[in-house]
Amino acid sequence: MIARGVSPAAVAQAAIAPTLEDRPRAQHTSTTVALSPAAMHALLQAQEQMDKNAPVTARMPTVIAIDQLISQMTDTPPSAQPVADAPLTLRRLDAARQQLTQA
Hints:
Elements: H1 29-51, H2 56-74, H3 88-101
């Protein structure tokens, strides 16, 4: 038996599945958290060297480590000054680096 006057239901078009490019990217949130132990170690090492009045040449490995951490956290060269609204870890690392490089 055929029903008269009844049209078939309209087929709704399925939504396109999102791709990886469609997802918003969090900027360095996980990087900052992952580097926290390394940053804390570098800060403690810097403080110890400053307390002992270590010569500048003995401080250079710590300065290099701090430079590497800063460049990993910001994707910029370590010589670039961090902005005022940078995360606290980044500002503390930069301050420690500046103190270590002063004679």
